[in-house]
Amino acid sequence: MQTRVHTLRHCRDLGGGSFAIEVDGPIPATLPGQFYMLRTEQRWPVQLPRPFSLYDRAADGSWGSFLIKPVGEGTRALCASRPGEGIVLNGPLGQPFPQDVVDPICVAGGVGLAPFLLLARQAKANGRDLRLLFGGRTREMLSGMEDFAGLVRLHASTDDGSHGFHGRVTALLDDLLQKGVVKAGETVFCCGPDPMMHAVADLCGKRGLRCFLSLETYMACGYGVCNGCTVKVQGPRFKGWPYSRTCMEGPVYDACELVHEHG
Ligand SMILES: Cc1cc2nc3c(=O)[nH]c(=O)nc-3n(C[C@H](O)[C@H](O)[C@H](O)COP(=O)(O)OP(=O)(O)OC[C@H]3O[C@@H](n4cnc5c(N)ncnc54)[C@H](O)[C@@H]3O)c2cc1C
Ligand code: FES
Prior knowledge:
It is a single chain. The chain has helices spanning 73-79, 116-125, 169-178, 194-207; strands spanning 2-15, 18-24, 35-40, 50-53, 56-57, 63-68, 86-93, 105-109, 130-136, 152-158, 165-166, 187-191, 210-214, 230-232, 243-245, 252-254. By secondary structure, the protein is α/β, with parallel strands linked by helices. The strands form three sheets. It has a seven-stranded antiparallel β-sheet.
């Protein structure tokens, strides 16, 4: 993990309110699912940096990019930065998606698409085309989809039917299970809004698929000292301790490890 100031090269409008912000290198080797804490060098409006998956990286590390949707002051400041300005990066942080799964099915919603571009490039370099299921409310909300052209077998869904499968991404996954494009015993990697990840994990549980979720919890430090990012967990990895720091043992968890509190 290193902290350094990088120069913003450009901020690309991906449509649907999201941007890819590209910074110069060196960007360290980073595994799909790992993240960085980011802030602007000047005029950072909030106290703490914010976590983002690395979206893309030049093979030689000479540049990297982050897919960001402005939802608050921090993300707005990052997306309003101009070429030549400084962006402070701390990373890579956290645990990646498991590296030993061959041909995972990637299921993404919104900016949850971010960790899958590196994974798609890694798979392509090994001669494989990942199946990517990407859902949004409308065609416009499928921000970043074009960046995956030629890299994956893409199955898109929209809630309003304006592009691809008409319905939620969980219904699309169900449909692909019925058609045999996805089969019981396979492994899903999922990233997106919490309700969508719960629904995907539920469906996977019922249909005999293994499922890993990349959580987007609130984070303060990003490297294990503040305990601001804990989630309730179970299983041998945590040696009997009921909480896990998302920034250290996560953000990727086997869905079976997460304990959902109801009510
Ligand atoms: C490991 C990880 C990877 C992430 N990768 C990306 C990414 O690639 N692209 C991207 O755009 N975002 C990503 N996020 C989410 C991103 O960090 C938050 O959107 C960001 O911190 C918001 O900061 P802000 O100052 O703009 O908003 P704030 O002012 O902090 O919040 C604005 C609004 O968003 C809500 N909010 C903020 N953070 C979260 C959260 N984590 N979960 C639910 N609601 C939240 C707040 O409640 C508030 O309503 C990731 C988060 C994690 C933990
Ligand atoms: S964000 Fe501080 S311990 Fe995880």
